[in-house]
Structure formats: structure tokens, C-alpha cells
């Protein structure tokens, strides 16, 4: 089933969710780059793809937002008591998934590095633009907020599965 239904998410929504979850987990490995100046396996083998994976995530989140809007009428709805919290939590997750790659690109372009994705120069190197670099400095604080949001998302999925036993997690599995 490609489309979502009121009972569960369809295969397209599940694809977006789990592929993006995997790529975000990879991106969060960048936190290890702060240890020993990246001189370890994670820093040497995974972190070099950080910009490329971030750019892929930006494309995926835009496609996912379009898909979500198209599916909004037939998606599973949270229970009435938590509807506002669920919508706010998901909204903040989507916002952070958009702001992360945008702020990263702003930092790179603002510093004059341009944007190179999987070896292809998408935005040429150029002059520094301080205003853009300044906005790009929010990339790290947004990453920490996003890490907390993702952790909360995981915890709530587990709470619904193991404590409430309401099949919320099964809708996305």
C-alpha cells in the first residue's frame, strides 16, 4: 500500500521515515568528530560525507513535506488528548530537519567554501558573506535541539508501544 490510511502509514511514508532516520543517525555521528579532532574511525570514514548526506536530507525533507501534505486527510490521527503535543512535536522535528541543512549550507557559502556534494561543486567558492556565515553559526545549536527532539520522538514511540500499548509504533513499522 503506497498511500497512508487512517489505520497505518503507507510504504512511501515509511520509506521516508526510516531512510531519513538512518541518515540522521549517521549525521549525529558528527558529534564524535569533536573527540580527538576527528582522528578516529568515525571522523575519518563517516564525517567526510556530512555535507553530502545533509544535502540529501534537505531534498528528502522537502519531498517528505510535500508527501505529508498530500496524505494529511488520510493519515492516522493521534488521540484527542495529545493531538496538540503530537502536532507540535512533529512540526518542530520538520522545522529542525529543514533548518539543519539550510544553516549548514549558509555557513559554508557564507565562509566562501561553496557547496560540494558527493564531489560535485553545486555552489562555487566565492567571497565571504558575513551575514550568511553568522546565520550558519546556528547550525550546531540547532543540531543539539534536534538531537533532543529525536530522542523525545524515540522515547514517546517506545512509551506508546510498551506502556500505552496502543499500536502507535506499529503504524510506522
UniProtKB/TrEMBL annotation:
<dbReference type="Pfam" id="PF01292">
    <property type="entry name" value="Ni_hydr_CYTB"/>
</dbReference>
<dbReference type="InterPro" id="IPR011577">
    <property type="entry name" value="Cyt_b561_bac/Ni-Hgenase"/>
</dbReference>
<keyword id="KW-0813">Transport</keyword>
<feature type="transmembrane region" description="Helical">
    <location>
        <begin position="12"/>
        <end position="29"/>
    </location>
</feature>
<keyword id="KW-1133">Transmembrane helix</keyword>
<keyword id="KW-0472">Membrane</keyword>
<keyword id="KW-0249">Electron transport</keyword>
<dbReference type="InterPro" id="IPR052168">
    <property type="entry name" value="Cytochrome_b561_oxidase"/>
</dbReference>
<dbReference type="GO" id="GO:0005886">
    <property type="term" value="C:plasma membrane"/>
</dbReference>
<keyword id="KW-0812">Transmembrane</keyword>
<feature type="transmembrane region" description="Helical">
    <location>
        <begin position="49"/>
        <end position="67"/>
    </location>
</feature>
<keyword id="KW-0349">Heme</keyword>
<feature type="transmembrane region" description="Helical">
    <location>
        <begin position="88"/>
        <end position="110"/>
    </location>
</feature>
<feature type="domain" description="Cytochrome b561 bacterial/Ni-hydrogenase">
    <location>
        <begin position="8"/>
        <end position="173"/>
    </location>
</feature>
<dbReference type="InterPro" id="IPR016174">
    <property type="entry name" value="Di-haem_cyt_TM"/>
</dbReference>
<protein>
    <submittedName>
        <fullName>Cytochrome b</fullName>
    </submittedName>
</protein>
<dbReference type="GO" id="GO:0022904">
    <property type="term" value="P:respiratory electron transport chain"/>
</dbReference>
<dbReference type="GO" id="GO:0020037">
    <property type="term" value="F:heme binding"/>
</dbReference>
<comment type="similarity">
    <text>Belongs to the cytochrome b561 family.</text>
</comment>
<keyword id="KW-0408">Iron</keyword>
<feature type="transmembrane region" description="Helical">
    <location>
        <begin position="142"/>
        <end position="163"/>
    </location>
</feature>
<keyword id="KW-1003">Cell membrane</keyword>
<dbReference type="GO" id="GO:0009055">
    <property type="term" value="F:electron transfer activity"/>
</dbReference>
<keyword id="KW-0479">Metal-binding</keyword>
<dbReference type="GO" id="GO:0046872">
    <property type="term" value="F:metal ion binding"/>
</dbReference>
Amino acid at each position: 500500500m503506497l498511500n497512508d490510511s487512517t489505520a497505518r502509514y503507507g510504504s512511501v511514508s515509511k520509506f521516508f521515515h526510516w531512510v531519513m532516520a538512518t541518515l540522521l543517525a549517521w549525521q549525529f555521528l558528527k558529534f564524535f568528530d569533536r573527540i580527538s579532532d576527528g582522528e578516529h574511525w568515525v571522523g575519518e570514514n563517516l564525517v567526510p560525507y556530512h555535507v553530502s548526506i545533509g544535502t540529501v536530507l534537505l531534498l528528502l525533507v522537502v519531498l517528505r513535506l510535500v508527501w505529508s501534505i498530500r496524505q494529511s486527510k488520510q493519515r492516522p490521527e493521534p488521540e484527542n488528548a495529545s493531538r496538540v503535543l503530537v502536532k507540535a512535536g512533529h512540526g518542530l522535528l520538520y522545522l529542525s530537519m529543514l533548518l539543519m541543512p539550510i544553516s549548514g549550507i549558509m555557513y559554508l557559502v557564507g565562509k566562501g567554501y561553496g557547496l560540494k556534494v558527493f564531489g560535485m561543486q553545486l555552489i562555487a567558492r566565492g567571497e565571504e558573506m558575513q551575514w550568511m556565515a553568522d546565520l550558519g553559526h546556528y547550525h550546531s545549536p540547532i543540531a543539539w535541539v534536534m538531537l533532543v527532539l529525536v530522542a523525545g520522538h524515540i522515547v514517546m514511540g517506545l512509551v506508546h508501544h510498551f506502556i500505552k500499548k496502543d499500536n502507535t509504533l506499529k503504524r510506522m513499522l
